[in-house]
Amino acid sequence: MPFPKKYELPPLPAELARKQRITIPHAAQLRGISEAVFRKKYPHLIEQVSPKRQVAELGKVLDAE
Length: 65
Prior knowledge:
The protein is an alpha+beta fold. The chain has a domain at 21-63. The chain is 38% helix and 14% strand. It contains 4 helices and 3 strands. The protein has a 3-stranded antiparallel beta sheet. Helix 2 packs across helix 3.
């Protein structure tokens, strides 16, 4: 029996897409800096969601100066 076709979700509206939480390495890559520099320069963007997981909101990372 073949696997069912993969269901694809429609794209998120822009305001919801900007609220996505991304990992710190991904956030640093978007800013074009290393993870260590991101942690030092943008500590206010980092949110601790569990004892081992830290994330940043995509919209805030893109808007940060």
